[in-house]
Amino acid sequence: MNKQLEPHQDFTYDSKAIAKLKEEVIHFSHSIGIDKIGFASADPFLALKERLYGHREKGYESGFEEKDIEKRTHPELSMPEVKSIIAIALAYPSRMEAPPKSEKGAYRGIMARAAWGDDYHTVLRDKLKQLEVFLHEKIPGIITESMVDTGVLSDRAVAERSGLGWVGKNTSLITPEFGSWVYLGEMLTSFPFSPDTPVEEGCGDCTLCIDSCPTGAIVQGGQLDSHRCVAFLTQLKDYIPDKYREAIGNRLYGCDTCQQVCPKNRKINFTHQTEFIPDPESAKPLLKPLLSISKKEFASRFGRSSGSWRGKKPIQRNAILALAFFKDKTAVEPLADVLQHDTRPVMRGTAAWALSRIGGEEAQKVLKNAKNAEKDGTVRNEIEKGLFFMENVE
Fold first, then answer.
1. CA–CA separation, 383 vs 356, rounded Å?
2. CB-based contacts of 178: which residues, under 8 Å, 6+ apart?
3. pLDDT of residue 1
4. Alpha-carbon dihedral of residues 386, 389, 390, 391, nearest 10 degrees?
């Protein structure tokens, strides 16, 4: 029978009991489908803190992260009793079975792999909850706090310290077994689990991710300018800056380029986590129907995906950019409908830009008619820019 430690007693008294419990936690984690688990000290992340302050000074933050850098790097500010951190990883697919193909007049967008299947936040929280229940049964009085992505700590920094992998030049955590195709979560605990050894393997001289980034957002190995990152741009609710619109391609949410080119991800595809297996029609949806999708339809089709958290507007706007990317002449009519009737200025303005890139007499006629009717200044500006482009560049 396993020995249970009494609440709030000094856990350091019996190193053998602590080591045995750690093995039991590892075994249990695998039994509930956690692919990797590691243990880290709860010491402050001082090197990370220095990098984060430098990152902020350069204006590279996305705005989605926790604003208090002290909280991001000092685990004790989240849980004063913390003595160790448990990191977990779940692998997700890198390839789709029988993906639908884009065809002329029926072009498709693509959701990043992190948005395939069920929302990873929900899946990881469930795994961490099961792990917490196990720990509370084993250690009465233990204090725990779990985080997934939206927590204050850096998932990657915790995972790296825990020995799950190393943070590559593309800023993703790369594991020896699953490459960077993993979701991460962590749990702060008041129990002093012994820390694991960080992975020493790295990226070497490889710069493929830096060289392949569509917008040059990886400014140097391990440093990302979030405001240039396509994954960030696809989640904006406002206009995407002109200089990045063509770089979006047919991406509807997120971007996988820096992971796709990584040699550590070559020939890696794991589908054992069935929650993450994508519905092909949701992961590579037809573009034109997205322009008129209702909130109810969007929630029904995409609501279980992590890519739905910003609502339908960014995905619809990105669908418009994708139609321009394909120069889809059959999209002129639905884009004209957006320009004439959509109540959202960003959608109308983006439709104007897309029509100018698709080109042709019909698109030009639509823009000229819209110019006379449009009341919003930002949309009129997009229409005028589009007409100028068509008259001087085409």
1. 8
2. 35, 36, 89, 91, 268, 270
3. 36
4. 120
pLDDT, tens digit (0-9, with 9 covering 90-100), for 141-162: 999 999 998 889 999 999 999 9
Share of the chain above pLDDT 90, in %: 91
Question: What amino acid is encoded at 349 in this protein?
Answer: G
Residue 26 burial (C-beta neighbours within 10 Å; 0-12, 13-18, 19+): middle
Q: What is the CATH number of domain 208-267+281-392?
A: 1.25.10
Mapped onto helix, strand or coil, the DSSP state of residue 162 is coil
110: β partners: 251
For the chain, the domains span 11-97+116-189, 208-267+281-392
Please confirm, yes or no, whether 10 is among the known catalytic residues.
no
As a whole number, mean pLDDT of residues 249-269 equals: 97
Question: Which amino acid, one-letter code, is at 200?
Answer: E
Report d(CA 222, CA 148) in Å as an integer.
Answer: 21
Helices (H) and strands (E) in the chain, counts: 17, 10
Please name the amino acid found at residue 160. E
pTM: 0.93
Under a CB-based contact definition with an 8 Å cutoff, are residues 286 and 113 in contact? no
What are the b/e assignments for 304-317, b being 16+ CB within 10 Å?
bbbbbeeebebbbb
Ramachandran angles phi, psi of 180, nearest 5° = -100, 5
pLDDT band at 3 (very low <50, low <70, confident <90, very high): very low
Kindly name the residue from 118, 126, 149, 279 that is annotated as catalytic: 149
Q: What value does the mean pLDDT of the chain take?
A: 94
pLDDT(202) > 90: no
The secondary structure of residue 174, as a DSSP letter, is E
Distance separating alpha carbons of residues 349 and 379, to the nearest angstrom: 4
Does residue 41 contact residue 30 with C-beta atoms inside 8 Å? no
DSSP helix/strand/coil, 84: strand
Rounded average pLDDT over 301-321: 96
Give the pLDDT score at 394: 58
| pLDDT greater than 90 at residue 263 | yes
